[in-house]
Amino acid sequence: MADSVSSVEGGECNLAGYLTGDRALLLDVHSKHEVLDRLIDCLAGSPEVASREELAAGVYEREKLMSTGIGLGIAIPHVRLASVSDLAVAAALVPEGIDDYESLDSMPVRLVLLIAARSDQHAEYLRLLSRLSSKLKDDCFRERLFACGSSAEFYAQLIEK
């Protein structure tokens, strides 16, 4: 991928280093399980992820510990695994929202960003999570994402600096 370290250094959070257009999805799904499976399948097809089974097990194990629904219509499931060669992201916009995601604020989740990192990428992984969370707290940015009508538009908004 692009120079991953520079994608999260400084105050910027540039997803272009981790997210490709084919991994930005506009989905018509109705459950947490459906959206997670679609994102797992999507990310498992990327060169950074060697094992779909390990990715799925890691994501669902993480969700058992605590839901990754952070509120404001957003969920950020995330894992660090030995079978991942470099940090990678898959994103889904679910216009109708997912009621069963168990978000911290109990609101339906409309945006899900799945992050997979190599097990030793702790600092970079935490920087990406932190900067992404901060960026997504911006009401205007979030509303632009929620208003996207196509996968291409969704991807363009996500990678905008």
From TrEMBL:
Q: What is a single Pfam family found in this protein's UniProt entry? A: PTS_EIIA_2
Q: Does the keyword Transport apply?
A: yes
Q: Which SUPFAM superfamilies match?
A: Phoshotransferase/anion transport protein
The residues forming a coiled coil are none
The protein's matches in CDD domains, at most eight in alphabetical order, are given as: PTS_IIA_fru
Report the transmembrane regions from the record. none
Q: Which PROSITE patterns match?
A: PTS_EIIA_TYPE_2 (PS51094)
Please name the InterPro entries in this protein's record. PTrfase/Anion_transptr (IPR016152), PTS_EIIA_type-2_dom (IPR002178), PTS_SugarTrans_NitroReg (IPR051541)
Identify the keywords attached in UniProt to this record, alphabetized.
Answer: Sugar transport, Transport
- What is the annotated signal peptide range for this record? none
Protein name stated in the entry: PTS sugar transporter subunit IIA
